[in-house]
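task queued by scheduler; priority normal; single chain, no ligands, no partner chains; default sampling; output format set to structure tokens
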Amino acid sequence: MQFIIYIIQKNKHVFLFCLFELIALFFTIQLHSYQKSKFINSANSLTGGIYNNAITLSSFFNLRVENKLLIQENERLHNLIETRNITTPVDSSLTQKTEQGYRYISASIINNDYHQNNNFITLDKGENDGVQADMAIINSQGIVGIIAKNSQNYSVAISVLNKYFKTNAKFKNTPYFGTISWNGKNTNIVQLLDIPRQAQVKVGDTIVTGGRSAIFPEGILIGSVHKVGYNNNRHQNIDVKLFNDLRTVNNVYVIENLHKSEIKNLEKTTYE
């Protein structure tokens, strides 16, 4: 405190000069309209810039929260789209029922491997959120993986970039089906196998999920044809460039097939 008093006493003439300057500036602004308008404009510009920077900074820190809310809203919309009304005539009357084939669960990736031959993804959702093994994982760009196992609050999934990953796939605009797998080489390229030689394949053709399994719904994006080759003159070796960059994926949706148990039980009794 004594040091502050000492500083004031030592520089009292400077402080007194500044005080008189402020008083003079105040009266100049108050008594002259031109100077007053210039001051107001400058003050507005300064405060506007400060407010704008403050809003930008606040928006930056709120971005994570806003992104989470957006993901949750997309989850709700996905489930709303999946719920559809089916009108069926019964005894000359119309009976309406609701049928939902899939349920979407939003999740975030908390660990993502992509530099091994067998890569796995860890999600922040588990059994408490309805996540179970053999559920599909996607985002807006396409397929991501398949749930392998889960705990109460977390899940581990087989990534598309895993040599044991396989799923049914097809060309978007032709009837030919095959199997998507990964050869462990390029993190952006997967392989489409078992396509017959007679299939007309062009670089750039879109590949989507085929829907011939109880995991991925039909029509989910996978990638586009990158390169075409042949194997023993029977099947084409097709490299597919993923729409997803799996090294940068953060937010995903886990898809539950609500009819999976019914399908599996029916297939099991049929094979028996």
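post-processing summary
- The first strand starts at residue 83 and ends at 90.
- Confidence is low (pLDDT under 50) at residues 43-48, 85-98.
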